[in-house]
Amino acid sequence: MVTQVSLLADDAHKNKEVLFDNLTRAAASVQTIDNFKQWTREAIRPIFPHETLGCGYGRIHAGGVGTDGIIAVDYPIEHLKDICNKAGGLDTPILRRWLMTREPQLFDGDVPWPDIPQHWFEQFQRHGMKNVAAHAVYDTERCIGTYHSFHRIPGVLGETHISMLRQLAPIMHEVLCRVIENLNNANAFEVLLSSLSIREREVLRWVAQGKTNREISQAIFLSEMTVKHHLMSIFNKLRMESRAQLIHRLAEHDACAQPEYGVRIL
């Protein structure tokens, strides 16, 4: 019996090593927000079972770290909106406790902390978040902090979850930093957009809505040939090769646009 238990433990350990190997190899190809979400579902969820995940990131400054954005993976967006503070930023006691201790945090909704804010806990329960296992990385070299909060985790939270968080958080941090850098590079697209003329921007607005050249010509009272001329100029200025590529890029740009205030939810 002891031998069988030992063999089962060895098999579980080997299986975990295989999953972590798959996780790190798959991480190398993650470049976009969609890649990141797919990677967490396919590579992290088998290792660390959960239903929802929120990954926050922000710049480190003299007063601490501010949350610039959150990548929501199967996460109830309404819950994020409900826990925004008056300044539009997210306020969570889990992150506050991490900032005080710099240690992985486990929270069970059935056994809440005595000092948990009532409003936050009410929203936590209302959205069925169940529990939290969270850890963060304070990267002073990049001046970026990332926070990784897993929810609706099966079973009882304990030391195994803490150990897993310590292993996963540094990997997730590196991948998320790369995704953020790529996202910031998207600002270059803003520069290209600013080079368009007023008429080209008008044509672009209709293109983004999926309108054909004929429909655009009728909407803005130009000939189809003139619309086509403007479109070719837009392609050149924005470095696009096709209408489909242009529409896709515009959709990405709109989805990632920084709100006037508050936290960007991706």
From TrEMBL:
- UniProt-listed PROSITE patterns: HTH_LUXR_1, HTH_LUXR_2
Question: What Pfam families does the annotation carry?
Answer: GerE
Q: Which CDD domains does the protein's record reference?
A: LuxR_C_like
SMART domains on file: HTH_LUXR
**Limits of the HTH luxR-type domain:** 190-254
User: Which UniProt keywords are listed?
Assistant: DNA-binding, Transcription, Transcription regulation
Q: Which PANTHER family match?
A: DNA-BINDING TRANSCRIPTIONAL ACTIVATOR DEVR_DOSR
Its recorded name reads Bacterial regulatory s, luxR family protein
